[in-house]
From TrEMBL:
Domain Band: 96-291
Keywords assigned by UniProt, alphabetized: Membrane, Transmembrane, Transmembrane helix
Transmembrane segments: 33-55, 76-96
Classification lineage: Bacteria, Bacillati, Actinomycetota, Actinomycetes, Micrococcales
Residues covered by region (Disordered): 1-25
Record keyword Flavoprotein present: no
Pfam family, one: Band_7
Protein name per UniProt: SPFH domain-containing protein
Biased composition (Low complexity): 1-11
Length: 349
């Protein structure tokens, strides 16, 4: 079904592809990994302290008892200490991939977004990731955007929108929508439908049909091309959500209408075609009448004009391979002929 106006419930989006990290999934994954590493570092540190403490219980110079734990205390302690330091260092850093925006989450509160690369952070700070790549929203076929025209008819706009989040607005988007996949249906698609309704509020399908048939778009408020409409939609979207999303482009490829409106457009185009044919016939008849008047006036002044016309017609007959009567001549009285030929017919004189 086509997408309806802004008050309609947004269509469900397919789940993210395997391996693609969204804002919510990235936060959960990093939160589990970071907290796990921090807990592991604490456990290793405790093991190191206990092992070294046990090792110190054996006096120096006293032979080690093979059965005693003190024999392995010192190596286990130092190994655990080194591992604890390494794990702690890992828990203090984070890597934000290319074309991603990291949002520090400290005790549930989003912080200032960070760009891609290696960053230091507190062990108790989680990092949520937002996709900053260009998103392509193709509203084609059954996913067309449904709008209402000023004549209360329904139109379905086939369009494509390229958009991406503003990195500096990632924290605000996270607080408002939590998951990246919620941004499109809740924000971009709703604003697109609203912008479409505003841009096409005065769109007249009949005026557009007339402009397409005659090439005369005298009323620019009613007859608009798709590029103008797409530009207006992009401008309105930038005004409403430009502080959070970057709208790279809006492309309108086709506008479909409901059955009743389309029937009216088809009938109107037929009438335009009939009118153009009638006007052409009128011009042709006018030209023929003028030519006949000119010929009649010429014949009355100079009879040889009729002979010249006959010769032209005779030459045309020869070129087309038509049969010329035996003994026929355009000169009256010549070769026993009793007439001249005009438009392929013989006239008696």
């Amino acid at each position: 079904m086509p997408r309806s106006n802004p008050s309609a419930r947004p269509a469900a989006r397919p789940p993210p592809a395997p391996g693609r990290m969204t804002a919510s999934s990235g936060c959960r994954q990093q939160q589990g990994a970071v907290m796990g590493l921090f807990v592991l570092a604490v456990v290793l540190a405790v093991i190191a302290v206990v092992a070294l403490a046990v090792a110190r219980r054996r006096p120096k110079g006293e032979p080690a008892d093979p059965a005693s734990l003190t024999r392995y205390g010192r190596p286990v302690g130092w190994a655990s200490a080194v591992l604890a330091a390494v794990v702690l260092a890992i828990s203090l850093t984070t890597m934000v991939p290319t074309q991603q925006v990291g949002i520090p989450i400290t005790f549930g509160k989003p912080g200032t977004p960070i760009g891609n690369g290696l960053h230091l952070k507190a062990p108790w700070t989680d990092i949520a990731l937002m996709d900053a790549t260009v998103q392509i929203d193709n509203n084609l076929g059954e996913e067309r955007t449904e709008i209402r025209l000023k004549n209360q008819s329904t139109a379905y706009v086939q369009n494509s929108v390229r958009w991406r989040i503003k990195p500096e607005a990632a924290a605000e988007l996270y607080k408002a929508h939590r998951a990246f996949e919620n941004i499109g249906p809740a924000l971009q698609e709703q604003e697109l439908a609203a912008a479409m309704n505003q841009a096409l509020a005065d769109y007249n399908p009949l005026a557009q049909a007339k402009a397409a048939a005659t090439g005369d778009a005298t009323d620019s408020a009613e007859a608009k091309d798709f590029d103008d409409l797409a530009g207006q939609v992009k401008e309105r979207m930038e005004e409403s959500i430009g502080d959070r999303l970057i709208i790279d482009s809006v492309i309108i490829t086709k506008i479909d209408f409901d059955e009743k409106t389309q029937s009216r457009i088809d009938a109107y185009q037929v009438e335009i075609g009939n009118t153009r044919i009638a006007e052409q016939r009128k011009e042709t008849a006018k030209a023929e009448s003028e030519a006949n008047r000119t010929l009649s006036a010429s014949i009355s002044k100079d009879p040889n004009v009729l002979v010249s016309k006959c010769l032209d017609t005779l030459a045309s007959m020869v070129e087309k391979g038509q049969t010329v009567p035996v003994g026929f001549s355009c000169w009256p009285g010549a070769s026993g002929a009793d007439g001249v030929l005009v438009d392929g017919t013989s006239r008696d004189r």
